[in-house]
Design brief:
The protein has 259 residues and is of the alpha+beta class. It has 5 helices and 11 strands. The strands form 2 sheets. The chain has a 6-stranded antiparallel beta sheet, sandwiched between helices. A 5-stranded antiparallel beta sheet has the order 8-7-11-10-9. α1 (18-53) packs antiparallel against α4. The chain starts with 17 loop residues before the first helix and ends with a strand.
Length: 259
């Protein structure tokens, strides 16, 4: 494997490498989940457009039309454990907030997530601060949030992949899918272990999403590099002792030793 020398923080010019191959395989693993998110986003945007054409505000009952597609994705996509649309507050005419969210149980059955979103009684009534909602809203881009303990849906250590839903250029919510961390690690840690140095994956905020490095456990934060900038530039760089390799359009960065 050949690497171009350069100062810390400089753009690294890489030939075809083990790092690039692993990053590409991570991308392929997550793109299947993002495809499910994209389908939910397209169906939601089309549904809201039809409702607007009727001259009325959408209501929570309208979102029931999304259920056949959500059920299909849950049974079709091996990594997806939950899927749905999360409305921006104020979008719906009958409720202040809403999650049209469905999950697959351990028995393979599909069931709805039932939440009390009354702000007077529920600690989860304001979900707008969660990364899976805030990152797509604020950046207009796809996001990988976590891993985190998903008290809202499953009490499992999870990742949430999400994308903004827009109508006439206005943000109206997010389409999203949950992936249990144990399933994601089972798919990608063997790839990380093929690399010669201890390696791990982080999201745009430096949260470790999966790791083959005992010094950087899943869920911990890596501070220092501008991981969001690496993703935006879509180029491998060196930062101190770390080589940062974006995963080909998926919002994760592969971190490996630079030496």
């Amino acid at each position: 494997m050949r690497r171009s020398p350069g100062p810390a923080g400089a753009t690294a010019t890489l030939d075809v490498s083990a790092e690039a191959a692993v990053a590409a395989q991570v991308r392929r693993t997550l793109e299947a989940v993002f495809e499910a998110v994209a389908e939910t986003r397209a169906e939601t945007a089309a549904l809201l457009t039809r409702v607007a054409a009727e001259g009325r505000r959408p209501a929570s009952v309208d979102l029931a039309a999304l259920r056949p597609g959500l059920h299909l994705r849950l049974t079709r996509q091996e990594l997806v454990s939950g899927a749905g649309f999360v409305a921006a507050p104020g979008l719906l005419g009958d409720v202040p907030a809403w999650l049209e969210w469905w999950q697959q149980g351990s028995d393979g059955g599909v069931r709805p997530l039932l939440l009390d979103l009354d702000p007077e009684h529920s600690a989860y009534s304001d979900y707008t601060h969660w990364d899976w909602f805030a990152l797509p809203r604020d950046t207009g881009q796809r996001a990988v949030a976590g891993p985190y303990v998903d008290y809202l849906c499953s009490d499992e250590y999870s990742l949430t992949l999400s994308a903004p839903v827009q109508m006439d250029g206005r943000f109206v919510g997010v389409a999203a899918a949950d992936v249990y961390l144990r399933h994601f690690e089972g798919a990608v840690v063997p790839l990380l272990q093929r690399l010669p140095g201890a390696s791990y994956l982080v999201n745009a905020r430096g949260r470790v999403a999966a790791s083959a490095d005992p010094a950087h456990l899943a869920g911990s934060l890596t501070r220092g590099p501008d991981f969001a900038g690496v993703l935006a530039a879509a180029r491998s760089t060196v930062h101190g002792a770390m080589r940062l390799v974006p995963c080909d359009g998926v919002p994760l960065v592969l971190v490996t030793p630079a030496g």
